[in-house]
Amino acid sequence: MRALFERSGLRRLWAMIVKELWAVLRDPKSRIVLFVPPLMQLFIFTFATTLDVKNVDVGLLDRSSGAHSTELVQRISGSPNFRQVVRLRSFDELQEAIDNQRVIAAIVIDQDFDRDLARHQPTTIGVVLDGRRSNAAQIVAGYLTRIAGQMGADTLPRAAADGQGGSEVINWYNPALDYIWFTLPSLVAIITSVAGLAITSQSVARERELGTFDQLMVSPLRIHEILIGKMVPPFIIGMINGSVYLVVAPLIFGVPFTGSLLLFFLSLATYLLALIGLGMLVSAASQTQQQAFLGVFLVTTPLILLSGYAAPIDNMPGWLQVVTFLDPARYFLVIVQGLFLKAMPAGAVFHQLWPLVLIAIATLSASAWLFRARME
After folding, report:
1. How much is the pTM?
2. Closest residue by Cα to residue 73 from 89, 90, 60
3. Alpha-carbon torsion 343, 346, 347, 350, what sign?
4. How far apart are the C-alpha atoms of 173 and 254, rounded to whole Å?
5. What is the pLDDT of residues 160-196, one digit of tens each?
6. Tens digits of per-residue pLDDT, 307-366?
7. What angle do CA 355, 356, 357 make, to 5 degrees?
8. Which of 99, 105, 124, 221 is the most buried (most CB within 10 A)?
């Protein structure tokens, strides 16, 4: 058995894997850097990357000063999304408050507001938004519209009963609209991407910088054995970090995992192989670790921005949507969100997984070709 082990080359491969693992894990500080910062990033970014708008100030120009306008102001003040309602006395003060970013929005209540409501007639309020913060301003406008609509339904119940307003909203997969339920599964893909690319990209560049790359060239190791040995450590570390995220999400953040564990780890393994192929391409093309670091930055930024995490892919231009089909994070993001929140069935997972397999094959093949060309 031992002779077969040696004859088949498994002993050389095992020695290469142990050597690479030892190079990555021998320094205690390196071990901490590989596992602690990704976990810290998960905790910090889960709360930081949110589109919820809270603790903002809104202005108020009340030209009615009646009971109904006072009730509307009290409802706005009582909302947990707003910190303070700033009283304004004129349109000049309103303009100054918006220009100086004292408020993100200003509410204008017309002088006929209370009179119209007393006559059971529909009325409107004006909202001036700070267009420099367009996303946050639109969300604040939604908050104000919802508050005003609820007050209108309470004040004019007959109109609501006649079918002039009102709706029933059911939120599937995230009933409370908790943004963490969307953010955390996405961060599993994003942080895994950054860590996987960073570790892999340093492998060959580190050999060149330390002067040991020539030793690999004259060693009895074959090219595929060197490549596999360099790919195994980041693969193992990525699987460990992914497993930790899978445990942390439901236990600490309360984000349910409703899908299949087998499909999750299968998808994670395929995604890591695609990332490792990209990282090896960067590493094989770099002469120093500094070049590898800059190369990873060049790859990571479009990988994240084109994945659909920062902005929906449907909102991108048509030609850019075509480019996103080459982004492995695009597919893994859909898989991990589906497995966490809606128990994505195997058929839907494999529909996203087969492009990921093709990307992994392409990147691994390209990195092997470039590595062989550099060794020759």
Report:
1. 0.75
2. 60
3. positive
4. 14
5. 444 444 445 556 766 666 777 878 888 888 888 877 7
6. 888 778 887 888 988 999 999 999 999 999 889 888 889 999 999 999 999 999 999 888
7. 90
8. 105
Give burial (CB, 10 Å; 0-12/13-18/19+) of 192.
Answer: buried
Kindly give the residue spans of alpha helices, DSSP state H, lying in the chain: 2-7, 10-25, 28-48, 67-77, 91-99, 113-118, 134-155, 157-161, 179-210, 213-218, 223-248, 261-285, 289-305, 318-323, 328-341, 346-375
Dist. CA 269–CA 247, nearest whole Å: 17
Residues 6+ apart with CB under 8 A from 146: none
SS3 letters across 106-174: EEEECCCHHHHHHCCCCCCCEEEECHHHHHHHHHHHHHHHHHHHHHHHHHCHHHHHCCCCCCCCCCCCC
Please state, in angstroms and rounded to a whole number, the distance separating the CA atoms of residues 276 and 192. Answer: 11
Q: How far is CA 103 from the centre of its chain?
A: 29
Q: Which of 265, 336, 279, 344 minimizes the C-alpha distance to 307?
A: 336
Show the tokens assigned to 344.
């994505």
**d(C-alpha 32, C-alpha 42), whole Å:** 15
DSSP SS3 for 59: strand
